[in-house]
Amino acid sequence: MTKSEIVETDAGEARITWHPAPGKSARLLLAVSHGAGGGIEARDLKAIAAELPAHGVSVALVEQPWRVAGKKVAPAPKTLDVGWRGIWPALEKKGLPVISGGRSAGARVACRTATELGAAAVLALSFPLHPPGKPEKSRADELLGAGVPTLVVQGGNDPFGKPAEFPEGPYELVEVPYGDHGFAVPKRAEITQDEAVKGITDAVARWAGMLAG
User: Cα 186 vs. chain centroid, distance in angstroms?
Assistant: First the structure.
């Protein structure tokens, strides 16, 4: 049963929507935030929240303060980091190892703050390796500097960085064939949208299972 909680941060009020693993089966807590252009209703976040609890992973979908306040544009990266730091105590109260996660801008936040916050691992969904059409403006240093086990799930046709553009590094990368930045696949693709989403949840469940031992 899901429930939402408002958490005060130095960037304003954030909201956590909890999707707990059943009974006492939780071995990990996965906290995931949204990107700069959307909220926790993103297809990948909804699917992960629906699927992972059955695998012993409680999921916390986190809405950054700017979304909770109804603003349309995300603030500067430093402010996003402040909001993420502010929700961490509420996560730690659960007494479980915390995987820090996010999609797009949220993935960058998770990478930048992982070591500082003591995250057990990082889940980076649609990591924006560079702005579309500007590969020279790489953000690879954020990903490579996460300092903890990291899983990147990337659309094969993501304009913010296709899988082949990613540098070698201490992380695992799973490609979602044909997927764009939101993991949408075109109708002509050889896989359906449902299959693409299942590929995401299967990859995250497998990886989380390895972390949990």
Answer: 23
Distance (Å, whole) CA 189 – CA 93:
43
Burial pattern 175-210, b for ≥16 Cβ within 10 A else e, equals: bbebbbbbbebeeebeeebeebbebbbebbbebbee
**Helix, strand, coil percent values for the chain (each to nearest 5):** 35, 25, 40
Contact 36, 104 (CB under 8 A): yes
Give the mean pLDDT per block of 10 residues along the chain (213 residues).
92 97 94 95 97 97 97 94 98 97 98 98 98 96 98 98 96 98 96 97 97 82
The alpha carbon of 198 is separated from its chain's Cα centroid by a whole number of angstroms, namely 16
